[in-house]
Write a structure and sequence with these properties.
Length: 283
C-alpha cells in the first residue's frame, strides 16, 4: 500500500465533507479515549488543608480572662455553667488540622476516583465502544461519497449488543497485552485495529469471528499502519503547540479518514472478510 496515496485519499475525503468530518472526529476522539484523559484532571485538591499546621500552646486562666471588659459585667454565672470546659492546670493547645484534613482528602479522593472510574467504565462499555464503530463507519463511507450524520447510527442499530460486547472484548485483549509490556500491548492494539470497521461492514458477524478477522487482516501489515501513524508526527507536534485546536479542526479528521482508507485498501488486498448479506435496519 502506498502511504502517500492513502493520506491523499483520506485528506481529500474529509476536506470534501469538512464540518461533518470535524464533528464526527470530535465524537470519535472522545470515544477512543478523550473522556479518560479529561477525567484525570477532575480531582479535588486539598493540599493546603492537608499541610500540618504548627501547634501553638496557649495557657488559659478563667480567672484572668474576661471577654467583657466592663467591670459591671458579672462572669460568675458563666464560670459556674461552663467552667467544666476549662482546666486551670491544663494548657489548651490548638489541635492541628492535618490529621482531619488528611482523612478528608483521602476519603474525598477515593470517592472521586471510584465514582469517575465507575462512570468511565460504564460509558466505555455501553456508549463509547458502539460510538467508535459509528465514527469509523462514517469515515469509511465518506471515502466514496459525502457521508451524512445518520451513519453514526451504525454502532447502535441493528446490532448494538454485538457491537458493545465485541468492542469491550477488543479493549480487554489490548489491556491484557499492555500488562505484559509496552511492545506486546502495541502489537495487540494494532492487531485489533480493524475491529470497529469490520463491525460496521458486517454487523451479522460473531464476536470472535470479528476479532479473528481483524487479526488475520493485520498479519504482516501492523508495521505498515505503525509507520503510517508515525508519518503524522509533525502534525501531532503542531497540534500540541496549538493546544489541541489544530487537532480538532484538521489533524484528527485527517488521521481518521486516512485510517479508513487504510482499511479499505487492506480489505481489498487481504480478502479475509466473508460476503454477508446486508442486515436490515430495525425500526
Amino acid at each position: 500500500m502506498n502511504r502517500k496515496e492513502l493520506k491523499a485519499r483520506g485528506k481529500a475525503a474529509f476536506k470534501a465533507n469538512y464540518w461533518k468530518a470535524v464533528l464526527v472526529a470530535i465524537l470519535l476522539t472522545i470515544a477512543i479515549g478523550g473522556w479518560n484523559a479529561g477525567s484525570a484532571s477532575n480531582s479535588v485538591d486539598f493540599e493546603e488543608l492537608a499541610e500540618p499546621q504548627q501547634s501553638q500552646s496557649v495557657s488559659v486562666d478563667p480567672e484572668d480572662y474576661n471577654p467583657f471588659p466592663s467591670e459591671d459585667f458579672d462572669t460568675t454565672d458563666i464560670d459556674q455553667d461552663f467552667g467544666f470546659l476549662l482546666d486551670d492546670d491544663a494548657n489548651v493547645a490548638a489541635t492541628p488540622s492535618a490529621p482531619v484534613s488528611q482523612r478528608l482528602k483521602e476519603s474525598v479522593n477515593v470517592g472521586t476516583i471510584a465514582g469517575l472510574g465507575t462512570l468511565s467504565a460504564l460509558l466505555t462499555l455501553f456508549l463509547f465502544g458502539p460510538l467508535e464503530v459509528s465514527g469509523r463507519n462514517f469515515f469509511k463511507k465518506n471515502l466514496v461519497e459525502k457521508a451524512e450524520l445518520d451513519e453514526l447510527n451504525r454502532g447502535f442499530v441493528p446490532k448494538y449488543w454485538n457491537n458493545m460486547i465485541t468492542m469491550a472484548l477488543k479493549n480487554l485483549f489490548v489491556a491484557l497485552g499492555f500488562l505484559f509490556f509496552l511492545i506486546p500491548g502495541i502489537i495487540v492494539s494494532y492487531g485489533m485495529e480493524m475491529v470497529p470497521y469490520i463491525l460496521a461492514d458486517n454487523p451479522g458477524m460473531g464476536i470472535m469471528d470479528v476479532i479473528k478477522a481483524s487479526w488475520n487482516m493485520m498479519k504482516g501489515h501492523k508495521w505498515e499502519l505503525f509507520v503510517l501513524d508515525l508519518s503524522f508526527i509533525g502534525w501531532i507536534l503542531l497540534d500540541i503547540l496549538t493546544l489541541g485546536i489544530l487537532g480538532l479542526f484538521y489533524v484528527n479528521p485527517y488521521i481518521f479518514s486516512t485510517h479508513a482508507a487504510f482499511y479499505e485498501a487492506l480489505k481489498a488486498e487481504t480478502n479475509v472478510l466473508p460476503e454477508l448479506p446486508e442486515t436490515p435496519v430495525e425500526a
